[in-house]
TrEMBL record:
It comes from Corynebacterium humireducens. The keyword 4Fe-4S does not apply. The lineage of its organism: Bacteria, Bacillati, Actinomycetota, Actinomycetes, Mycobacteriales. Keywords: Hydrolase. It comes from the Bacteria. PANTHER family: STAGE II SPORULATION PROTEIN E, STAGE II SPORULATION PROTEIN E-RELATED. Gene3D superfamilies: PPM-type phosphatase domain. GO terms for molecular function: phosphatase activity. It holds the Pfam family SpoIIE. Residues 1-88 form the PPM-type phosphatase domain. This is SpoIIE family protein phosphatase.
């Protein structure tokens, strides 16, 4: 979620519609490896996310953690694995919740 000095990036903006959300993760997720030293790919992450698109934020993060742990098995990881998920519930603040 941070950038190093001199790093290039594109800036953009968008607007979430009610019910839409974002799932963010650090590079430690796609650099997670298993006992055979195979890396977890973004393609696998895309498949998992499409399978979990109906889950709420908390359940999605919990399920993703389980799948990453299952992939990695007993292999010790060398980078942080950080996940952040949120969903826009609309302008009515009474619907807001923190997962």
């Amino acid at each position: 979620m941070g950038a190093m000095q001199g790093m290039r990036f594109e800036e953009g903006s968008g607007r979430l519609k009610e019910g839409e959300g974002l799932f963010l993760f650090t590079d430690g997720v796609t650099e997670a490896f298993n006992a055979d030293e195979a890396l977890l790919s973004e393609d696998v992450m895309d498949i998992w996310l499409s399978e979990m698109r109906s889950l709420g934020s908390e359940a999605l993060v919990r399920e993703m953690r389980l799948r990453i742990s299952g992939f990695a098995g007993s292999a010790e990881q060398s980078d942080d694995i950080t996940l952040l998920c949120f969903r826009y519930m609309g302008p009515d603040t009474r619907k807001a919740q923190t997962d």
